[in-house]
Every structure is written in C-alpha cells, then in structure tokens.
Write a structure and sequence with these properties.
By secondary structure, the protein is mostly helical. It folds into 2 domains: 5-95, Orthogonal Bundle (Rna Polymerase Sigma Factor, Chain: A), CATH 1.10.1740.10; 106-214, Winged helix-like DNA-binding domain superfamily/Winged helix DNA-binding domain (Arc Repressor Mutant, subunit A, Orthogonal Bundle). It contains 9 helices and no strands. The chain has helices at residues 15-25, 29-48, 54-71, 81-95, 142-145, 148-159, 163-174, 179-186, 190-214. The relative contact order is 0.11.
C-alpha cells in the first residue's frame, strides 16, 4: 500500500519498497538512479539546513549516497527507506563537524528568547480572558504570501534561524516530513522537535508580520 503517492513516497511495509531495496542490494543501477531522482533534490535542500554553502551540502549528499550503498545490506526495514536515508544524511553532516550532537538539551533549543512576545497576551489577572491573545496573529491574503518577495523573505528568515530550528522547519514545512519522520531522521525526541518547530515558525511569522505591516 502506497502513502503520499503524489510525492512518490512509499511506506516501509510496501511491496514497492521491498522490491526497490532488493534491487539496490543486487547492484541494480536503475534502482539507484530511481532513488536519486526521488530523494536527491530534497536531500540537497535538507543538507543546506546543516551547512552554509551549496558545495558543502552537495558533498554531504554525495557522502550520504555512498553510505546508503554501503549500508543497504544492513537495512532492516524498521523505519521507511526514506527515513533511513535522511538519518544517514543528518549523521553524515554531523560527522563532518557541522553539528554538535544528536540529542539537544532544552537549554540549546534556541536561547531564552520567547517564541511570542509576552505583551501579546492578556495578563493572568484579566477579568474575562486571562492569558488570551491581546494582539492575535494577523491573517494575510494568499496572493501576498505567494508573492516572490514574500517567499524570498521566508527563505532568508529560515536560513538565519539557529541550526536546530532551521533543520526541523526545513524538514517539516519545506519538505513535508511528518513529526515522526523528522524525529527519527534527526534523532530528536517528540518534545524537542515540537519546541524547535514552534520557535522556528514563530520567528518566521514575526518576520512576516513586520514585512506585511511595512507594506
């Protein structure tokens, strides 16, 4: 059974994936090229969230494919092939010294800066709505969000995020990984992943709010 058929992604229990893995183990070059075509562009974008240059990201991707080919005989199907490949990608980037560790303490989740400014909430002693939004997020027209300048602003803001936040938001909101896939690929707990994603999204939204208000 396929999942996300429109994206060409198969689950770890699918017949298609088992056949693809077996072809890879037999040295089928066409199977490898199929995999490169399927995941290569996403791998490069995710690698760019670990490193600062495209050249370095391309090297990470190349090393990852070497790791895939060398390790395919040890792939046990405990996760999807996609998750396994992206876990190798993350580990390869970290092995190169661009990341400090797989486990992230709460003290390293982006500093002490609040995800949303406290003054945007009503105080705990408010008579009717304690803790509710005082200045709720704005709604913006879809055509403004889809404009080239807006997309470029979002890309720049993501690129400037702290590394762990950048990695998570790239996987979740750019590449469409679900929470479990992102946690498995990046070696994060569900709580860490959720906090990182919330803070990353909040920073992107703040940048969008400032941009929209200026316009």
């Amino acid at each position: 059974m396929r999942s996300r058929a429109s994206r060409g992604v198969v689950t770890d229990q699918s017949t298609d994936e088992r056949e693809l893995v077996e072809r890879l183990r037999q040295g089928d070059e066409a199977a490898f090229m199929e995999l490169v075509e399927l995941y290569g562009p996403s791998m490069l974008r995710v690698a760019m969230s670990f490193v600062r240059t495209r050249a370095a990201a391309e090297e990470v991707v190349q090393d990852t494919w070497v790791g895939v080919l060398r390790g395919i005989d040890r792939f046990e199907g405990r996760s999807s092939l996609k998750t396994w490949i992206f876990r190798i990608l993350a580990n390869t980037a970290r092995t190169r010294g661009v990341r400090e560790a797989r486990s992230i303490p709460f003290s390293a989740l982006g500093g002490d800066e609040p995800a949303v400014e406290p003054e945007r909430f009503l105080g705990p002693d408010h008579p009717h709505l304690p803790g509710a939004w005082a200045a709720p997020p704005s709604e913006w027209p879809a055509e403004r969000l889809e404009a080239k300048e807006t997309r470029e602003l979002i890309a720049r803001t993501i690129a400037e995020l702290p590394p762990q936040q950048r990695e998570v938001i790239t996987m979740r909101d750019v590449e469409g990984f679900d929470a479990e896939e992102a946690c498995n690929a990046l070696g994060l707990t569900e709580t860490n992943q959720r906090v990182l994603l919330h803070r990353a999204r909040s920073r992107v939204r703040r940048a969008l709010e400032r941009y929209m208000q200026e316009r």
